[in-house]
Amino acid sequence: MSSTFTEEVRARLEVDAKDIIARYPRERSALLPLLHLVQAEEGYVSTAGIRFCAEQLGLTTAEVTAVATFYTMYKRRPTGEYHVGVCTNTLCAVMGGDEILSALKEHLGVGNDEATEDGRVSVEHVECNAACDFAPVVMVNWEFFDNQTPESAKRLVDDLRLGNDVRPTRGPERLCTWKEASRLLAGFSDGRAGEGTQAGEPSLQGLRLARERGWVAPRPGAAATEAAGDEGSAK
Ligand code: FES
């Protein structure tokens, strides 16, 4: 595996990198989207990708590697075309997330964060995706598949491997590939952000209850102001 991109790839990525870097007051602030950009090229952050980011931002490869290995959304080895994340955080675990993860690993014959031999699907356990009201939740390339069971999750990965039409429970109607998702995260929109179901019924129920009861979100700084007021009135 080459430790640098070919001239053609490099020239193409440099155009996108310039666009990304121009969004920030300091060049090094562009590192996270640049890592997504190189991940979109190869499906993971390779040595060539690390080197490219370092050169674009005037950083050392050690600095870029430190960031790329800190965040779990950056992969250091080839990922499946469809990356399946099974939430095993508290609520999803209680509702069956661990069983789903075990069932998928056994069904696909892979370990955590490994891809199937055909390169179609990889699986990893992920932390809470802020979708606890739909637990247990499975993500495919960061799109939601709500209220899963071991059986429904196995059907899902089978469909992904067979190339059948698969639709997320919420969000875009067409599931994009891992590389396409990485490019979106680099900040290049495909114009489909508003597609499909947005907030699901359980989330909306919570909103309705809050309105009925007159609950409002705390204002920033309100707690400190109120505490100071209480102290003043106690004197
Ligand atoms: S615990 Fe799974 S989405 Fe929150």
Please characterize this protein's 3D structure.
This protein is an alpha+beta fold and 235 residues long. Among the domains are: 7-70, Arc Repressor Mutant, subunit A; 82-177, Glutaredoxin. 47% of the residues lie in helices and 9% in strands. It is built from ten helices and five strands; from the N terminus they run H-H-H-H-E-H-H-E-E-E-E-H-H-H-H. The protein has helices at 7-21, 31-42, 47-57, 61-70, 90-94, 97-108, 150-162, 178-185, 201-212, 222-234, and strands spanning 82-87, 114-115, 121-126, 138-140, 143-145. Strands 2-3-1-4-5 form a five-stranded mixed β-sheet. The termini are far apart. 31% of the residues are buried. The mean pLDDT is 91. FE2/S2 (inorganic) cluster binds at residues 87, 89-92, 128-129, 131-132, 135, 137.
Provide the β-strand percentage band.
Answer: 5-15%
Percent helix range = 40-55%
How far apart are the first and last residues' alpha carbons, in Å? 72 Å
User: Which word captures the global form?
Assistant: globular
What does the main sheet amount to?
5 strands, mixed
What structural class results from the helix and strand content?
alpha+beta
Bound molecules: FE2/S2 (inorganic) cluster
Please give the count of helices: 10
CATH superfamily of one domain: Glutaredoxin
Radius of gyration: 21 Å
Oligomer status: single chain
CATH A-level architecture of one domain? 3-Layer(aba) Sandwich
Question: How are helices and strands ordered from N to C?
Answer: HHHHEHHEEEEHHHH
Can you tell me the CATH topology of one domain? Glutaredoxin
Q: What is the CATH top level name of one domain?
A: Alpha Beta
Overall residue-averaged pLDDT value: 91
Strand order of the largest sheet: 2-3-1-4-5
